[in-house]
Amino acid sequence: MGLPTYGSMGVDWEERVNFERLRTERLARIKALLQHSSLGAILCFDTNNIRYLTATSIGTWANDKAGRYAILPQGGEPTIWDFGSAARHHELFSPWLRGRSHAGISTLRGAMSPGAGRAEDVAQKIKALLEAHGLQNEPLGVDIIEPPVLFALQKAGIQVVDGQQLMMDARVIKTHDEIMLLNHAAMLVDAAYHELYTQLRPGLRENECVALVSKFLYERGSEFVEGVNAISGERCSPHPHNFTDRALRPGDPAYFDIIHSYMGYKTCYYRTFAVGSASQAQIDAYTRARELVDIALTQIKPGVTTADICNLWPRAQEFGFPNEEAAFALQFGHGLGLSHWERPVLSRLTSFDNPEEIREGMVFAVETFWPASDGWSAARIEEELVVTATGCEVISRFPAEQLLVCGARYFAATGPLPATRDTQSHLNQTLPLVVAE
Q1: Domain check: are 243 and 205 in the same one?
Q2: Most-buried pick from 114, 298, 364, 423 (CB within 10 A)?
Q3: Helices 47-54/164-171 angle, 10° precision
Q4: How many Å apart are CA 273 and CA 129, to the nearest integer?
């Protein structure tokens, strides 16, 4: 049996996600790594790391503010300084933080002027806590930081070093409950793609596809729809990584990436469709993109490295790019967790010089791209997987073995129009561009 899929409610008659276990196991993992590191404490402004340490969230609006912060000292428990009344809310409703949730705010990415003294206030609070634990002379690991806060910490005599790597080390192997949440998040995208499949038709705009997916996910418990790439027609190659108000047309390729979070845990999950019919060039591109996914999936297991997988993928020059940096993230793999991109990273740009070992309990996505021979179509496919003891289990289940054709079937006098159409009514002619003089 594969990974179980449960409902979104907690019940007394079935063991589902155990949130107390989720909190304690995440915190225990970073505590153990901190204990064996050279750091005296780790200070986090990244909201994903704050959630990992403290199991708190005050809404996705706070993700880009860098205003909240939490610290974990060697041998101690996490303390958080949060946005005004949110700190009081944690005191009331997050008993695992009782007595360690305080009001505090940074510079809000510079919105508060230097004269307000917020950077110095942060430094004073951190220094006082470090002194209380006898750690004021030990290196302080920080994940991300505003320059004024960095300068204020340094002025206070605190040695600031990179702490993000320790957090990434903690988060790379997922706990049982994290894997269950990631699987549930993927299940919601399965259903969102079914909804898209039923709705794709000529005249529907890319932004309407984004709205459809977002509404569907939020109604079913998504915490945050971080992004929906919706790319169609001549926008497909090169990949622009966004969406517009372009309307779908008969014969268009259209591919999507749905990035959302359930209880904080993210997805990254591409699918490609054809609207009404597909050309042979589109089918060939899709077949190649699928092959590149499958050769990776067959080789992923504990003990192989990211370099081993990347060596199976074509060089950038083989699909129209001058170098690996220009083709970055087209043949790609990346970890999934509280962040959209975590470890491991699989890329021909970095993995050969810095290979990472694939380990049981990793959760990551493998995504591929292939341009069509017509010069404007392309295919994009992505599968999410959990690394098991002997291989991997794919948790993105919406069908992707072959290119799916969406929309109504059209009928001529002699019967239905074929789903593969290379010669349409306009003969696919390349018309000369007329430029006014």
Answers
A1: yes
A2: 364
A3: 60
A4: 55
Q: What is the distance between the alpha carbons of residues 26 and 2, in angstroms, rounded to a whole number?
A: 24
Same domain, 367 and 249: yes
Q: Please check whether residues 322 and 264 belong to one and the same domain.
A: yes
Q: How many CB atoms lie within 10 A of CB 19?
A: 13
Cα→Cα distances 344→113, 166, 357, Å: 38, 14, 8
Q: What is the DSSP letter of 247?
A: B
User: How is residue 365 written in tokens?
Assistant: 């996505």
- Domain encompassing residue 298: 176-416
* Residue 275: inside a domain: yes
Reply yes or no on whether the pLDDT at 370 is more than 90: yes
* Domains contained in the chain, number: 2
Q: Region 249-263: what's the mean pLDDT?
A: 97
Q: Tokens 């949130």 belong to which residue? A: 19
Tell me, yes or no, whether 432 lies in a domain: no
Four-residue CA torsion sign, 287, 325, 257, 375: negative
Torsion angles phi and psi, residue 58, rounded to 5 = -120, 20
Mean pLDDT in the chain?
Answer: 95
Query: What residues contact residue 137 under an 8 Å CB cut-off, 6+ apart?
Result: 40
Q: Please list, in sequence order, all residues whose beta carbon lies within 8 angstroms of the beta carbon of residue 433, skipping any fewer than 6 positions away.
A: none
Looking up residue 48, the CATH number of its domain turns out to be 3.40.350.10
Q: Which residue has the tokens 């349409």?
A: 424
Q: Are 287 and 258 in contact (CB under 8 A)?
A: no
pLDDT of residue 385: 98
153, 170, 187: which is the final residue of a domain? Answer: 170
Amino acid (one-letter) located at 64? D
In a domain, 431, yes or no: no
Last residue within a domain, chosen from 118, 150, 170: 170
Q: How far apart are CA 305 and CA 343, in angstroms?
A: 12
The pLDDT of residue 2 = 77
Is it true that the peptide bond before 432 is cis, omega within 30 degrees of 0?
no
Integer CA distances (angstroms), 347 to 22, 314, 315, 326, 355, in order = 30, 11, 11, 12, 10
The Cβ-side half-sphere exposure at 365, using a 13 Å CA radius, reads: 31
Residue 5 falls within a domain, yes or no? no
Q: By the 8 A CB rule, do 217 and 202 touch?
A: no
